[in-house]
Write a structure and sequence with these properties.
The structure is a single chain. With 230 residues, the protein is of the alpha/beta class. It has one domain: NAD(P)-binding Rossmann-like Domain (Rossmann fold, 3-Layer(aba) Sandwich). 35% of the residues lie in helices and 16% in strands. It has helices at 13-24, 60-64, 90-111, 136-156, 180-187, 198-210; strands at 4-8, 28-33, 47-51, 72-75, 120-124, 161-167, 220-223. Helix 1 (13-24) packs across helix 6 and helix 3 packs parallel to helix 4.
């Protein structure tokens, strides 16, 4: 019997690469996104597309009611604005907190009840949650997601394995939000002298969701080419 994975934002960027890799290993994939225009797997028989606005936290139970059961949850959807902390519109702060931290936590809470023992959850966090980040609110939400990963690992007590990844800037559309000066400064800090590839992040998340030893639980895997050594 095929296993099922649900991927938020699985239609583009890191999420799309993650969708591809799960299909390659025989999973049925549920992709949740606001818009599927141009999504190459829209007609794939092993892909179920659910058009849903994940920014509406109050409606997450409605989304969950559409799902019978899953084996893996990939919390990938997120947003960044790269705005100065003292000029951040409240509506953008609220939107970011909702999408980047409240929704993943609510999905973990509700979908974990529809997962078998041994189910797995992987959260796409960011190096921004580990360092002092110029986009203060983005860093706060990603730090919260990393902490939620650790908290739920204790709550689940081994019944479900949950981990996170913390990529530095990745070559996706989100990279365009980062000011040029910051991009150039970052590239000087990495051993690879380039940004991460979406495939590299996806490969790590799929490994955590499938083959990684269950003893790797409640942790966050750094993906930053030496830019944050610890």
């Amino acid at each position: 019997m095929k296993k099922t994975v649900l991927i938020t934002g699985g239609n583009k960027g890191i999420g799309l690469e993650t969708t591809k890799k799960f299909l390659q290993i025989g999973y049925e994939v549920i992709v949740v996104a606001r818009d599927f225009t141009g999504f190459e797997f829209k007609e794939d028989k092993n892909v179920r597309c659910i058009e849903f606005d994940l920014s509406d936290v109050a409606k997450v139970p409605e989304l969950v009611s559409m799902i019978d059961s899953i084996d893996v949850l990939i919390n990938n959807a997120g947003v960044m604005y790269s705005l100065p902390y003292d000029d951040y519109p409240k509506e953008k702060v609220d939107f970011m907190i909702g999408l980047n931290i409240e929704v993943p936590v609510k999905l973990i809470e509700l979908l974990s009840k529809k997962m078998p023992d041994g189910g797995r959850i992987v959260n796409d966090a960011s190096i921004a949650g580990q360092i002092g980040h110029p986009d203060v609110w983005y860093g706060i939400t990603k730090a919260g997601l990393i902490n939620a990963t650790k908290s739920f690992a204790k709550i689940f007590d081994g019944r479900i394995i949950i981990n996170a990844v913390a990529p530095s800037p990745v070559e996706t559309d989100m990279l365009n939000v980062i000011p040029e000066a910051r991009r150039e400064a970052f590239l000087k800090t990495v051993t690879a002298k380039r940004f991460a590839y979406a495939e590299e992040v996806a490969k790590t998340m799929v490994w955590l969701a499938t083959e990684a030893p269950e003893y790797i639980n409640g942790t966050c895997i750094d993906i930053n080419s030496g830019s944050y050594l610890r």
